[in-house]
Amino acid sequence: MLKEFKEFISRGNVLDMAIGVIIGGAFGKIVTSVVNDLLMPLIGIVLGGLNFSNLSFKIGSAEILYGAFIQNVVDFLIVATCIFILMKIINKLTHKEKKKEVKEVPAKSADIVLLEEIRDLLKEEKKKSKKTAK
After folding, report:
1. Residue spans per domain, the chain
2. pTM greater than 0.70 (yes/no)
3. Is 62 helix (H, G, I), strand (E, B) or coil?
4. 2-133: CATH, from 1.10.540.10, 3.40.50.720, 3.40.50.300, 1.10.1200.120
5. Three-state secondary-structure class, residue 64
6. What is the mean pLDDT of residues 26-43?
7. Helix (H), strand (E) at residue 67
């Protein structure tokens, strides 16, 4: 069981996923800081000094923090946009690599070229002999 676990962990996909999660967590903190510390204060100033983090209303004893929700929505939209742009770039790069792979056709050896010419000549002779036989 330990051997199987080592094989599972050493696969490239698992390591790639782990690295992605770690980088994603760090990226998420940066985006959250950008939204909370830069964008939302600027949007608040444009809207007349409104502080989104304090926006809330009470229903009975419960406090609904819709300002925090708005910040989280903006945060999500920024992360989703960055991921979308990153995926578009990756798709373009991988698509170009696939085109290059298709274009690279190995050169035929002299023996192959000679055999193909002989084959073509034999086909022509066969066609000519069928026409003269009729």
Report:
1. 2-133
2. no
3. strand
4. 1.10.1200.120
5. strand
6. 84
7. helix 66-103
pLDDT for residue 97: 64
Token duo for residue 17: 């996923």
Are the CB atoms for 57 and 64 separated by under 8 Å?
yes
Of 28 and 7, the structure prediction assigns the larger pLDDT to 28
Question: What confidence tens digit (pLDDT) does each residue in 85-113 have?
Answer: 888 888 888 877 666 666 666 788 888 88
Assign 61 to helix, strand or coil. Answer: coil
- State how far the alpha carbon of 107 is from the alpha carbons of 113, 114, 115, 117, 121, in Å: 10, 13, 15, 16, 22
Write out the two tokens for 111: 């023996």
Find out whether 70 and 53 touch, Cβ atoms under 8 Å: no
Q: How far apart are CA 16 and CA 83, in angstroms?
A: 16
Residues making up the chain, counted from first to last: 134
